Amino acid sequence: MIAMVTGGGGALGSFLVRSLLHNKMKVRVLDKKKGLLNGLENENLDIVLGGIEEHDVVNKAMKNVDLVYHFAFTFSDDPATLQEINIRGTTSLLESAKRENVQQFLHASSVAVIGRPTHLPIDESHPCDPETFRGWPLYAVTKCRIEEIVLSYCRTDRLPTTAFRLLWPIMNLAFLDTGIVSKS
Asked: Angle, to 10 degrees, between the axis of helix 89-99 and the axis of helix 55-62?
């Protein structure tokens, strides 16, 4: 089994890559740079340098992949860059995964898609209102749109997908006044 990790050179992606390798899995990383994997040598590791918005690179990296962990994301303040890399790039990954008959596509979303919570505790049925995310609304709106696209691939029976929402430590500041994260 080959697992592909997009954004595998980043903080979360590199942690996952090391864990998969520790468990003797074959891992293919798709990232623009090696980042935190720089210097890591392992016979089960294949690093493909490139971005998710590069269709030819994505198609090459997706060959023979069974499982995709999608962590790649740009944190640009430019809406056009967010659209091109995050939304179109993710769509390119999904299309390539579908063509290659990937068994599962796991997408790292964010609790930022919820925006300002309307009730606690937050569960899967909580509505998304990313424009009310006080930390970084463009980030939240983009993550929400990507989550919708990823899940639509599952609903239309094109590709088994899962979106999971992470709470990044840096986001704690944005949630301090909502009751999600406590000050203590």
From this structure: 40
Q: What total of structural domains would you count in the chain?
A: 1
57 is in which domain, residue-wise? Answer: 2-178
Can you give the CATH number for the domain in which 39 is found? Answer: 3.40.50.720
- Outline where the chain has alpha helix (H): 11-22, 55-62, 79-81, 89-99, 137-155, 172-175
Q: What is the DSSP letter of 127?
A: P
Per-residue pLDDT tens digits for 47-70 = 999 999 999 999 999 999 999 999
pTM comes to: 0.88
User: Does the residue 184 lie in any domain?
Assistant: no
Return the structure tokens found at 1: 């089994």
Residue 8: which region, alpha, beta or left (left: phi > 0; alpha: psi -120 to 50)? Answer: alpha
Task: Report if residue 160 sits inside a domain.
Answer: yes
